[in-house]
Write a structure and sequence with these properties.
Elements: E1 4-6, E2 11-12, E3 21-23, E4 33-34, E5 41-45, E6 54-62, E7 68-70, E8 79-80, E9 86-94, E10 102-103, E11 107-108, H1 114-117, E12 120-121, H2 129-132, E13 136-142, E14 160-168, E15 177-186, E16 191-196, E17 198-200, E18 206-207, E19 209-219, E20 224-228, E21 233-237, E22 250-251, E23 258-265, E24 273-282, E25 287-292, E26 313-318
Parallel strand pairs: 1-7, 3-9, 11-15, 17-24
Antiparallel strand pairs: 2-4, 5-6, 6-9, 8-9, 10-12, 13-14, 14-15, 16-19, 18-22, 19-20, 21-23, 23-24, 25-26
Length: 324
C-alpha cells in the first residue's frame, strides 16, 4: 500500500512568489494565510507575530508519516526534513517603500542664506519616526547631468542650473528613498564707483579715469558675501553706443571734458556692468608779467615828476606749455 501524497500547503495574503512577501506595516503583525488540514499535519509559526523586516518560516509536520508523505516541493528555498516528516516554508516582510518631497530656493551668487536656501524635506514631521531619525544626505548635480553621475556633497557656488538629490538612509523597516528638486544660482551685480578727472588746464595729459572701485560678491562654499573685485576688463567710449576700446582715454584740453562711457566684463559669476563718469577741466588763468624801468615799477607805482611814464612799463603774457 503506497502512502497518501499530501499537497504542499499554499501560502497567501502577500504579493509575488505565491503571496510570500509582505510590506512592513507600521509594526502590525504580518503572517500569510495557509492551507490547513488539521487531520493530516500540524502548523507551527517561527514567529506568530512577525512584524519587522526579515525572513520567517512556517513548519508543517505530518501527524501520521507512516501513512502520508509530502508532494514534491515547488520552491527551491523551502526544505524538507531528513525523515520526510516536516517541511519548512518561508515568507518575508520587506521594507516599506515610501515617498517624500524636498524644497530648495535658488539664490544670487554670493548671497547664500543657510535658513532660506538650504534644501529641506517637506512635511518632515509627517514621516514615520524611524525615518525621521535616519541619516539624510544631499548630493548636488549640474542640471545637464541627467544620469546623476558626477555629484558632490558640497553645495555648488558657481552660477548655473542644478539638481539636488536628498537620500534618506534605510532603517530597520524602511527602504532608502530619494527625492530631488531643481534650483538655480543667478549672477550677482557689480557695484562700481568711478571718479573722472577734474582739474584746471595745465597743458599736461591725464587719465580720464582717475580711480575706480569695483565691488561684487564671493562664495567659496565656506565663506560668502561682499568682496572687492580686482580682476576685470574695462573698455571706454566717448559715446554710449560707440566703439569701445581697452585703451584708457587721455584728456588735456578744456574741450576734452564731458562724459566718458565704460563697460566692465570678465568677472566670473557677475553680470557685465555699464556706466559712465564725467571729466571736468576748467580754464587756466593767464599770468601777466610786468617789467620796465624806473622807480618801483614792480609795484606798478611811480612818483609824479611831470613827465609821461608809460613808456617805462612793459607787460608780457606767460602761457602754459606748448600753448605759448
Amino acid at each position: 500500500i503506497n502512502k497518501w501524497v499530501v499537497d504542499v500547503p499554499v501560502l497567501s495574503g502577500g504579493y509575488l512568489n505565491e503571496g510570500r512577501y509582505f510590506e512592513y506595516n507600521n509594526g502590525n503583525p504580518l503572517t500569510p494565510g495557509v492551507t490547513e488540514n488539521a487531520e493530516i499535519y500540524s502548523i507551527t509559526f517561527e514567529d506568530e507575530y512577525s512584524s519587522d523586516f526579515g525572513t520567517y518560516h512556517i513548519y508543517f509536520a505530518l501527524l501520521h508519516p507512516e501513512n502520508y508523505e509530502w508532494a514534491e516541493l515547488t520552491d527551491i528555498n523551502d526544505s524538507i526534513s531528513a525523515d520526510g516528516v516536516t517541511i519548512t516554508m518561508w515568507y518575508s516582510i520587506t521594507k516599506t517603500q515610501y515617498t517624500f518631497e524636498i524644497d530648495i530656493t535658488g539664490w544670487q551668487f554670493g548671497a547664500f542664506d543657510e535658513q532660506e536656501n538650504a534644501p529641506a524635506i517637506i512635511d518632515f514631521d509627517s514621516l514615520p519616526d524611524q525615518v525621521q531619525s535616519a541619516n539624510v544626505t544631499y548630493t548636488y548635480y549640474l542640471a545637464t547631468d541627467t544620469e546623476f553621475i558626477d555629484g558632490s556633497a558640497s553645495r555648488p557656488t558657481d552660477v548655473g542650473d542644478y539638481v539636488v538629490v536628498a537620500t534618506i538612509a534605510e532603517t530597520t523597516n524602511y527602504a532608502s528613498v530619494d527625492a530631488q528638486a531643481s534650483f538655480s544660482i543667478t549672477a550677482a551685480e557689480l557695484t562700481v564707483t568711478p571718479t573722472g578727472y577734474s582739474g584746471t588746464y595745465d597743458a599736461a595729459s591725464h587719465n580720464a579715469l582717475e580711480s575706480i572701485t569695483v565691488k561684487g560678491m564671493a562664495d567659496d562654499g565656506t565663506n560668502w558675501g561682499e568682496a572687492d573685485i580686482v580682476s576685470y576688463t574695462i573698455k571706454y567710449s566717448t559715446s554710449e553706443n560707440g566703439v569701445y576700446s581697452t585703451e584708457p582715454p587721455q584728456v588735456r584740453n578744456v574741450a576734452d571734458e564731458g562724459t566718458i562711457y565704460f563697460r566692465i566684463t570678465g568677472v566670473a559669476n557677475h553680470e557685465d556692468y555699464s556706466g559712465s563718469f564725467t571729466v571736468t577741466i576748467t580754464q587756466a588763468e593767464v599770468n601777466v608779467i610786468w617789467g620796465g624801468s624806473g622807480e618801483d615799477y614792480d609795484n606798478y607805482s611811480f612818483t609824479y615828476n611831470g613827465e609821461e611814464r608809460l613808456d617805462d612799463v612793459t607787460a608780457s603774457v606767460n602761457l602754459l606749455g606748448d600753448d605759448g
